[in-house]
Amino acid sequence: MKIHFVLLAAGNSRRFGENKLLSVMNGKPMYCYLADRLDRLHREHVGLKVIVSQYSEILASLEERSYLPVYNEEPEKGISHSIQLGIKRIAEHSVGNTDAVCFFVCDQPYLELETIDHFLIEYMYSGKGIGCVGNEKRLGNPVVFQMKYMEELLALTGDTGGKRVVKAHMDDTFIFRVEDRELQDIDYQKKPLVIVRGGGDLASGVIHRMYRENYRVLVLETENPACIRRQVSYGEAVYDGEAEVEGVRSVRIADLSGVKSCWEKGVIPVYVDETAASIIELKPDIVVDAIVAKKNLGTHINMAPLTIALGPGFEAGKDVDAVIETMRGETLGKIYREGSALPNTGVPGMIGGYAEERVIHSPADGKIRAVCRVGDRVHKGEVLGFVGEKPVCAAIDGILRGLIRDGFEVEKGLKIMDIDPRTDELNNCFLISDKAKKIAGSVYEAVRTWEEER
Known about the structure:
Elements: E1 3-9, E2 24-25, E3 28-29, H1 30-39, E4 46-53, H2 56-63, E5 68-71, H3 79-91, E6 100-105, H4 113-126, E7 130-134, E8 139-146, H5 150-154, H6 163-168, E9 173-177, H7 180-183, E10 193-197, H8 201-212, E11 216-221, H9 237-240, E12 242-245, E13 248-252, H10 259-265, E14 268-272, H11 278-282, E15 286-289, E16 306-310, E17 322-324, E18 335-336, E19 359-361, E20 366-370, E21 377-378, E22 383-387, E23 390-393, E24 398-403, E25 409-410, E26 415-420, H12 434-453
Parallel strand pairs: 1-4, 1-6, 4-5, 7-9, 10-11, 10-15, 11-14, 13-14, 15-16, 16-17
Antiparallel strand pairs: 2-3, 6-8, 7-8, 12-13, 17-18, 19-26, 20-22, 20-25, 21-24, 22-23, 24-26
Helix pairs in contact: 8-12
């Protein structure tokens, strides 16, 4: 049994406002997300591959990847016409009666390769004539049909797709369960604009997640951010011009005119704007206060249709729409719609059996001069650096996970270093923490809930 692929890319994108398949999304055209994943699918059951489109750029690009191109000169006839053109192109070749045709749409950038692979394999073992991805809420794409259903597909008219045939034969349909996110297509040009105040490690967890979910993200920072976990902080772009966290890059921009070009290149813009004055000009959909200063530094509920703050210092329903708990423990990541996060205790969360001992504060005012680097294995009592002439020593054995920028002017009592007592987890120094990921997940949940309600 062979499964032949037909990629449908002929729509007019009326709701999107322009050709969405060629629109750049995190650095590459939208149609490439599916094509790139299918290029990595090497299975004996994969047969012919056809691309149906009205766009010469897409046809030429995929013809170079061994797709059979089909020009749809009448896209106004609807998706049924594209389906039929694909079937007829496949019929020009010798195909078996037990073969099947799988139809994909090219505006599903969240559909993962692993999902496609498992879906097709399980479909073949199911013994069913039809297969589609879906869940309790809806049936989605891709959809695969055995050759015996081609006549019914050829009889479709207008903007009626293969789902009509699926619903007429549910007893012969295999459904592969997937998350709703993977079924999502892109119908509108602009994902909401998210402005994140702060570019430290917790903020960067949120920034990274929202970027991965394809929101337009802008980071606002101070002129001299004091990041401890600098290897996982987008705010470091203020100093170095750019910063990279888990494969996603941020770039400092000199003015707001550089925001759009960053998005088109698939990078995150970082702009120095301590007072968040640019919010008035940009009118974002969502503002996230991720400064984590344990107090409100000027964020208010009227800054955007949805405002979110991390940690104590804010009252949900008054200062912002939602507050996210940042204290480690059972309530980490809790979304408060009313009230506030737990008050700051001044005691760091427990990691590897240590709390206060793993965090090092400056013993004096002055410039810091480090003698160790992030990732170094350190020992209790070892001198890690100096503030002025005063030595800064490790209180426990471990790995130096965080270290404020060398030469930074610090005040006595400021957090300047962080030791991870888990000496076998060096990679954690360069990865977004579990805490940051939990908080980021809660921010995303709050945003999605707001979008659905809206």
